[in-house]
Write the structure tokens for this entry.
Amino acid sequence: MFSLEEIHETNIQTIQNDEYEIALKNFVLFGLYEEVEHIFVNNINLNIAFDFISKNNFEQKVICLDEMSFDKLYNKYIEIKTDKQMNDIATVQEQTVIEDDDISVAEFLKTSSDIMTSEESAPIIKFVNSLFYQAIKKKASDIHIELHEYKGEIRYRINGVLTKHIELDKNIMALVVSRIKVISQLDISEKRLPQDGRTSIKLSGRTLDIRVSVLPTFYGERVVMRILMQSEDIPSLENLGIDQAITNELETLSSNAHGMILVTGPTGSGKSTTLHSLLHKIQSRDKNIITVEDPVEYKSDTINQIQVNTAVGLTFASGLRSILRQDPDIIMVGEIRDEETASISVQSALTGHLVFSTLHTNTAPSAITRLLDMGVERFLISSALLGVLAQRLVRVVCNECKEEEKLSKYYQKEFSLKGKTKIYKEVGCKECNFTGYTKRVAIAELFIMRENVQNALKQNVDDTILNNLAKKNGMYSIKQQLIDMVLDGTTTLSEAIRVGLK
């Protein structure tokens, strides 16, 4: 019996042929191994596979794989098959869709099967499945569906930036929106009010949750779908891209038995990912970890998670009060939005709990003034707050196509750079999907509540004073990190400015 590694996975090119569809259902795969076509079966369904092989005049050599290796090859085969199907579906004409306008509700509700092996025939169903498939394949975080006067447009948010996927007739897009509302258990007849829902899809054996938001606009309903990740998708602290010294200090702060640690930054800066990375780093069997989130972005089997539901009165504040009666060791509050949540969070940190939460501020030191604006007393902040991490996600320029760029005199003066400084600009090629960038990494500044900061809090302070204290304490600012990334060719000046250099 072979494993996929033993037969050199890179040499296997699964063959797509309509004649092999029946074989696929009998757990038989055809592929190239060492440039010769072979038949692959697994050790679990040997009886079915060999019964099928014996009834057909196949001359290929049979290779038996273990279950895991066969599943990998099976998923690879399905991906190739699906890619071709989805490309065909993307060119669906309005006439074809209108003919299938009378799809029954029963057909629309068929959502339990894997989208890559779905045999549903309705073009709209297939097209919506293709949206999810392409989004996951392109590693998009959100799917945007917008209706304009004469057309509809679908865009994916990839690496934090929206990119156009496809344009369709407005009538077709209305059917797509209706399909999404049905699988998200929303009211398809209600087009005047915003609606929020969730749905799940299966892809390559994995189940992914999708958060759906529908908003009525002037020309029709706008849909945004957020693809929520599983706990196994959470990167470790070491893989986030944050400077190693900052990561070490953050881990030291997280080892405290009580206190508050805040993560700040704009929407989409990776705050929730960092918090969950921290939680998974410090979780253990002897700790009770409870979170209250909106939404629950990473499902975990080892952490107790509460979903905010304002419709029934379950807010961050009310959820946090209930958590305190559950004997928690560590609490994670998805976001501090109001004075009540801020007050309860600080009090929890003072009464023996380790509290993690997020705020929307541009810099780490400004989190203190934000808490002061929310009405939290200075002495409480000084006693409860351990540190604040402010972070951003920066796109890394593609090394295959980047080109050298001349630095203008304005930016030389603005960022105190030398005239002969070598910087690069994005171009775009096949390797980076013609975006000019390959991936995103997190950068962060860590503001620790040292003694001089605590003393300063006894008097009136503003962001300028706190920033100066942070620099004295050796804080490696986000602005300086962005400049360093531009200078060493990791990213472009335009990306650094977009993220927050200015």
User: Anything to note?
Assistant: Residues 67-89 form the longest helix (23 residues).
